[in-house]
Amino acid sequence: MKPLIGITCSRQVGGAWGAYDTGHFMDYAFDEYGKAVLHSGGAPVLIPVTQDAGSIAAVLDRLDGIVLSGGPDVHPRFYGEEPMPRLGDLDEDLDRMELELTRVVLDRDLPLFAICRGIQVLNVALGGTLYQDIQALVDGALNHVQQAPKHVTTHTVRLEPHSMVASLLNRRTIRVNSKHHQAVKEPASELRVTARSGDGVVEALEWPDRRFTLGVQWHPEGTWETDPPSKKLFRAFIKAAGG
Ligand code: MN
User: Fold this and answer.
1) Most exposed residue of 15, 114, 196, 222, measured as fewest CB within 10 angstroms of its CB?
2) What's the 20 CA to ligand 1 centre distance in angstroms?
3) Number of domain units in the chain
4) What whole-number distance in Å separates Cα of residue 74 and Cα of residue 238?
5) How many angstroms separate the alpha carbon of residue 197 from the centre of ligand 1?
6) Residue 14 pLDDT grade (very low, low, confident, very high; cuts 50, 70, 90)
7) Structural domain range at position 11
């Protein structure tokens, strides 16, 4: 049996065909997430934003692992800050849903692969904080918002020795894509920083001794077809979920 892997969505107003341009939200996830899960041995399932606590619990009863996907900025209210000028798009309903879902996933120790916004949701769910904008708040920051397409890697990440990522990939450094303007500031106490870029920005978080709790700030789903480390991370996640 293939493990069922839930993938959280983002939302935009209106449909792709432009027929409902006001007041109608559309849940979506880029298809790379589903493809990476499918080709790594899992069966992908999309999770819409419309959920309550009872529904989230029921959905998670039937799933074997969760991908928190990329998306808008987490509202700073959820980590005790007021909005700053460079804050990006927000969706507080999505924040509330993903934060609740993440807490239940962690309670149950379901395998969790938290990507881009996902690593930020993982950190905030456990009480950590974020930089609202890297360029404004981190001295000497690299360019983390690459113009190049998602399948192109643009900066280096150093992996912490004896971490799950380092042992899975058997490497000290990897090259990653980068499409984020926010990053983890204070990591939650349960989480270990296991990768950083050259400017010190947090690029991976792990909860040690769990089945699989990994957050990455890059987009391995954008490079899973060609990049061996991205393939290995997805495969290890699906394996932890029973695949
Ligand atoms: Mn980056």
Assistant:
1) 15
2) 35
3) 1
4) 27
5) 7
6) confident
7) 4-242
Cα separation, 95 vs 73, whole angstroms: 9
- Cα of 24 vs centre of ligand 1, distance in Å, is 33
- Over residues 138-151, the pLDDT tens digits come to 999 999 999 999 99
Which residues are annotated as catalytic? Answer: 116, 219, 221
Residue 227 has pLDDT above 90, yes or no: yes
The first and second tokens of residue 184, run together, are: 């983890």
CA 122 vs CA 32, 68, 72, 156, 214: distances in Å: 21, 9, 14, 23, 9
User: Radius of gyration (Cα) for the chain, nearest Å?
Assistant: 17
Kindly report the CATH number assigned to the domain that includes residue 204: 3.40.50.880
**d(CA 219, ligand 1 centre) in Å:** 9
Question: What are the tens digits of pLDDT across the range 105-119?
Answer: 999 999 999 999 999
Q: Specify whether the CB–CB gap between 110 and 66 falls below 8 A.
A: yes
Structure tokens at 91: 């969706």
Number of neighbouring beta carbons within 10 Å of residue 122: 31
pLDDT at 22: 74
For residue 42, give Cα distances in angstroms to 63, 112, 113, 241.
Answer: 11, 13, 13, 8
CA 233 to each of CA 10, 133, 156, 201, 225: distance values in angstroms, whole numbers, following the listed order: 23, 27, 17, 20, 12
Can you tell me the distance from the alpha carbon of 27 to that of 220, in angstroms, rounded to the nearest whole number? Answer: 21
Cα 218 to middle of ligand 1, angstroms? 6
Kindly state the DSSP code that residue 75 receives in the 8-state scheme.
P
Q: How far is the CA of 168 from the centre of ligand 1 (A)?
A: 20
